[in-house]
Every structure is written in C-alpha cells, then in structure tokens.
Amino acid sequence: MSRVTRREFLGQAIAASGSMAMAQQNTQQNTSSDIPRRPLGKTGLQASIIGMGGYHLGSADDLSTAKRMVDEAIDAGVNFFDNAWDYHQGRSEEWLGAALKGKRDKVILMTKVCTHGRTKDVGMKMLEESLRRLQTDHLDVWQIHEVIYYNDPDLIFAPNGVAEALDQAKREGKVRFVGFTGHKDPQIHLRMLRHGFAFDTVQMPLNAFDASFRSFEQNVLPEANRLGMAVFGMKSLGGSGEMVRKGGIKVEDGLRYAMSLPVSLTISGMDSPEVLHQNLSIARGFKPLNDQEMHAIRDRCRFEASDGRYELFKTTKKYDSDEGRKMHDFPPVAQLPA
Fold first, then answer.
1. Is residue 10 part of a domain?
2. Could you tell me how far CA 139 lies from the centroid of its own chain?
3. Domain of 323: which CATH number?
4. Which residue among 18, 75, 199, 306 sits deepest, i.e. has the most Cβ atoms within 10 Å of its Cβ?
C-alpha cells in the first residue's frame, strides 16, 4: 500500500460482493506475497484476506514477541491490523504502535472507540489516546466497539453521541473510514444500518456455526454487501478456539470457511508465533471453497451449532468487555462468570 496522508480520501467505488462466485473473483494474489488481497469495500484499498487481531497481540508473552509477530506478518503479506482503545487497558495499542514504528505506511491500521453510550467528547478523547499509543497521526479505520446491547443504537445516534465523533474525526482527517462492530445479535446490526449513517465498514462474527444459529451470515452479511460496505469477519473459531477444542471442526476448515464468505477479510486472534505460522500457512495461496464444500462444512456443524453452545459471545456475557459492562451496569467478569 502506498503512503497516504491522513487528509487523502480515496473514492474509487469497488462494490463488495454478495455471492460466493464474486468472493472468488475478488480474491487476487498479492504481487509481493502469496497471501491474496481483496477490495476493502468502496474505500479503494486492498486488504490481505487475513488480518491480525489486536486483543490477542496484547496477550503475547512480551513486547519483543509481539514485535516479532508483527514483522513476520507484514513480511508474509498481511497488511491489516486490528485493535481497540480498551484492549488490555491500552497495552495492545501501545505494543502495536511500537511494532509498526517505521512501517506505518505498509499497513491498514484500525482501532475502535469504546464509549459505550458516553458522549462525542469522550470518543474524541479516546481517539487522541489511541493515536498517541499507536504512534500515528491518523487511522485508516475507526470503528465503534461492541455494539451488543439492544439500546446501543439509540445511545450511539442520540444528540452528542459517538456517531457525531465519527463524523468529526473524518472531517478533521484523523480517520479515513468509519464503521462499527458487534457480536451479540444480528438484529442490533440491522438496527444500526437502518439509521442510514454513512458507515464504510462493519465487523461481525462469521464462522461455520453462525450459519445455523442467530446468523450474521444469513441476516447481516447480504445487507452489508448490498450497501457496498467492507465486511470484517471475526470469531472464526469461536473467540478462543471452542469450536476446535469441543465442536469437532479443524482449524483449517474453520478459517477457510470464514475466508470463503463474501467479506473483505477475516480478523484472526494470534497470541503466539506458532498460531501466526499456522494461520499464515492456511492463508498462503488461498482459494475460496466452492458452494458444495461450504455446504458440507455447515452440515457437519449444524447440530452442535443449533443451540449456540460454541458461540458463547452470542449466548453469554463471556466475551463482553468490562468497559461495556460497567456502562450498562452489569457486573465485571469476576462477579459474573457467564
């Protein structure tokens, strides 16, 4: 990716695909590596089909390990890096900022704002803290984190809500593109989209189990594709690998399924060099599965997927952040293990 100042906004219209055939057509080999890239919605950017998750990066053994992983990922052709203001109380952003020093122009950098109902001014303050930690003067993507409570859309679009911060940050050139994330219920995502806000991106759980239970793939993905948004898939293996450990799916099948959907990329948590190497080996030379292969994987998962037992981010509060719990008056994880 060529160097772009924070005030340059590319407008080339590249519509996101809504079908498996288009996902195959849009998957292009990266000339500098064998990890393919796809259009990032209408942004004009090209992203690696796999991105490095920020939470798990902050779970690495130490800063040195995190730096080594980021270096290896970039050298392999990964150019999308995820993060959030509240991951590990800021450590994830600090480590990624240190790892990207001198390499910022090689990547698409995303982080998320964690107001959880607080005002635009709180969001702008969080943005400045994120920029400082990440050692950059602009973000490529800034998303609203964890839109998972049913009153979140009302809070986000209330007067002086965080939606206004997204607008302001974009006007000021501190961020290039904006979006939102969530993992709880497709209906909350659809409520966000019905507001008609000019979101560029959206992030959601997309995996072989999701297709059979409270499905983002069935309900939100087609609408996001219709709108030409860049779709970021996440939780391809359940958040912490539950689907592999207990659900009977192989890592390769889980990741290949997620990356074969009509998405811009799949964000994967990698907390060690070993997991990084495993994921890179799956992404190298990737070709999307065909309809028959996708159907076969869904069928193998269908029974155990039907009650949400391995998508705990939907059925429990296990993966909900403490920051969001606090703002919505839920106890922290230690007091509410479920």
1. no
2. 15
3. 3.20.20.100
4. 199
Burial class (CB in 10 A: 0-12, 13-18, 19+), 335: exposed
333 within a domain of the structure (yes/no): no
DSSP code for 331 = P
DSSP state of 84: -
DSSP β-ladder status, 230-234 and 265-268: parallel
**161: its two tokens:** 């809500």
- Quick count: other Cβ atoms within 10 Å of Cβ 122? 17
Chain segment 237-249, per-residue pLDDT in tens: 998 888 999 988 9
Encoding tokens for residue 149?
């409570």
SS (H, E, C) 4-35: CCCCCCCCCCCCCCCCHHHHHHHCECCCCCCC
Q: Which of 2, 4, 82 is nearest to 50 (CA)?
A: 82
CA distances from 230 to 61, 120, 169 (A): 32, 24, 19
Does residue 216 sit in helix, strand or coil?
helix
**CA dist., res. 49 & res. 301, Å (int):** 23
Torsion angle of the four alpha carbons 200, 205, 208, 212, in this order, in degrees rounded to the nearest 10: -100
Q: Does residue 152 fall inside a structural domain? A: yes
The per-residue pLDDT for range 274-333, each reduced to its tens digit, is 999 999 999 999 999 999 999 999 999 999 999 999 999 999 988 899 999 999 999 887
- Domain annotation covers residue 15: no
Range of the domain at 113: 20-327
**At residue 156, what is the residue type?**
I
User: Model confidence over 53-87: pLDDT tens digits?
Assistant: 999 999 999 999 999 999 999 999 999 999 999 99
Q: For 331, left (φ over 0), alpha (ψ -120 to 50), or beta?
A: beta
Rounded to a whole number of angstroms, the distance between the first and last alpha carbons of the chain is 42
Q: Are 9 and 40 in contact (CB under 8 A)?
A: no
What's the structural domain count of the chain?
Answer: 1
Residue where the block lists tokens 């209906």: 187
